[in-house]
Amino acid sequence: MPFELPVQVSGFGPAISPDMNGFFLECFSTSDIIRAAVLAGYGAGGVDWRIRAWRIASIRMAVNFPVGPSPMLLGKLSHPRAWLQLDPSEKASISNLLGNIATKLLCERILDAPRLWFLDVYRNRFSVKLAGKRRPDFFTQTRAGQWLSVEAKGRSYGPSIPKLNSAKTQANAVVRINGSKVVAHVVCWTMSRGGAVSARFHDPEPADEGDSLTVEPGELFRDYYEPVRQMMQGSPLVEYPHGLKLFRFEAADFLIGIHPRIERYLETDIDYVAPTDAGFSKKLPHFRAEPPLEPVGEIVAGPDGVIIIPGRSWPVA
């Protein structure tokens, strides 16, 4: 049973595609949701496994994962009954996490941007000129090499005009990455209405001025997968056919792994560079189009190459 997420997409112009504007019903699997929870908002510096387990447990509180079909909210991304028993501070914390997850998944699905990086991690590691205190949560890059800034808001209510304007200001704070113009400044507002979750995915009018970010693409590529590799290193190996290695993260009842093609890139000394970067064809020609990852037997990886197989305590979706 896939989980349905209604999405209002607005504000996107020719730089991305105005055809993507409108109302849509996006569907995500249990594996998609767990994968996004593992990755969205993490830095490369390492996170204790207990924090990861807590985040996954929080997703069980935020999303109704029924054992059987629910006649009331069949297929909808909705909150379980236990959600009503949370106090406001608990709801706020979990709503924020759910907002990051929805943002990660919608960037993949709508923008064709398979990897999402937490901006705050890179303020001290790379050249980041962020004069103001308000800045976007994330930045990402499409398969075509376009850079985007992304502000995620997870709330139990819809956006008021002042709050949406504040989020737009954050999204607009970064205007260039590695010298290239940021082509979209996205606000993803995830909200709860009548027990069901929906989202607004909006590209506000760009600001005339903003800050710049300089990052090293090869490090970014490895940073993205570092939380997954840490989980794999601390978990027992489960051998699968076709040479696929998966690892059981027992604290949250799922198998995790990385597509063999991505693993090969991570194990080489060759830096990942986007198709638009100078010298691309010399450094890593097989990433020119970054084609979709082929299934490994019956196992299908996410767009980013991360594989999640939920255990028996999760519904099959």
Provide the descriptors you would attach to this structure in a database record:
globular; 15 strands; 317 residues; alpha+beta; 4-stranded mixed β-sheet; 7 helices; 7-stranded mixed β-sheet
Summarize the topology:
Layout: E1 3-10, E2 22-28, H1 30-39, H2 49-62, H3 88-111, E3 115-118, E4 127-129, E5 138-141, E6 147-154, H4 161-171, E7 174-177, E8 180-181, E9 184-193, E10 196-202, E11 211-214, H5 217-233, E12 237-239, E13 245-249, E14 254-258, H6 260-267, H7 280-283, E15 306-310
Parallel strand pairs: 1-10, 6-9, 7-11
Antiparallel strand pairs: 1-2, 3-5, 4-11, 5-6, 7-8, 9-10, 12-13, 13-14, 14-15
Q: Summary?
A:
By secondary structure, the protein is an alpha+beta fold.
Task: Give an overview in words.
This protein has 317 residues and is α+β, with helices and mostly antiparallel strands. The protein is 28% helix and 25% strand. It has helices at residues 30-39, 49-62, 88-111, 161-171, 217-233, 260-267, 280-283; strands spanning 3-10, 22-28, 115-118, 127-129, 138-141, 147-154, 174-177, 180-181, 184-193, 196-202, 211-214, 237-239, 245-249, 254-258, 306-310. The strands form three sheets. Strands 2-1-10-9-6-5-3 form a seven-stranded mixed sheet, sandwiched between helices. Helix 1 packs across helix 3 (88-111) and helix 2 crosses helix 3 (88-111). It is globular and about 55 Å long. Residues 69-74 and 272-288 have low confidence and may be disordered.
